[in-house]
Amino acid sequence: MASPATQTGPPDAATQPARAPANYKQLDSDQIVATCEQLCRRIQERFPSAGLNNCSGQLLQISRQAKVRAAQISEPMTWLRVLSGLAIASIVSVFVVTLMQVQLKDEELHSGEMVQIFEAGFNTLVLVGAIILFLVTLEIRVKRRRALKAIHELRSLAHIIDMHQLTKDPDRTRTRADDTASSPKRTMTPFELNRYLDYCSEMLSLSGKVAALYVQNFEDADAVAAVNDLEELASGLSRKIWQKIMMLNTVREDGAK
Q1: Cβ-Cβ contacts under 8 Å for 164 (sequence gap 6 or more)
Q2: What does the DSSP 8-state code read for residue 22?
Q3: Is 42 helix (H, G, I), strand (E, B) or coil?
Q4: Could you read off the pLDDT of 206-220 as tens digits, one per residue?
Q5: Helix pair angle (52-74, 29-46), 10° resolution
Q6: 3-class SS at 248?
Q7: pTM of the predicted model, to two decimals?
Q8: For the chain, counts of helices (H) and of strands (E)
Q9: What is the C-alpha separation between 70 and 245, in angstroms, rounded?
């Protein structure tokens, strides 16, 4: 019988360190930030003087901010809830006290007077209800405004990324005879252009993932719709980039023949 010191084979499962199960139901903000950091390093190493470095650095900064902002949006705003509760309690108290002080005369009321009384009471009740509804939904509206502002930053960044790849024409890697004095400088090899376009596509995809952090634990219809619009925008821009990559691969294959 083999001793513990000489025993071979896989160790007993009970002796292995327990690993935390991966959570595939929610996005991990730390992993998204780590992916942005890695992409930023890859771009710097491949294109140290390219303007795309500024875009990747901005995306990394926004992803780090999103980690904090998303956590703040998902947490309850206790101070705002307390203030809203106190305001609602005060409004209801004033309304009840005012209602109790109303005294009607014993004499018979005319139909016109009854209509006026019911109309005034209904208008007051609607006004009080509107104020209470405003206070109850105040926290959601504050969080929604913060989320939409952050998502708008990512939308602007997506358009900036698209501007960087706008002049990267794969077909011009084959011939430069038609260049003019105002034509963009084309110093990239087909391989470098392929990597540049691929980096742009990755950044667009990550921008959608960063935006999804804001609505992961904040299921507001307007915020979710804004994230969906951003993801559709990023997907559309990414499809244009992959069309260029496919054209570039075709050009490279034709050149190799």
Answers
A1: 51, 52, 55, 200
A2: P
A3: helix
A4: 999 999 999 998 889
A5: 170
A6: helix
A7: 0.76
A8: 7, 0
A9: 34
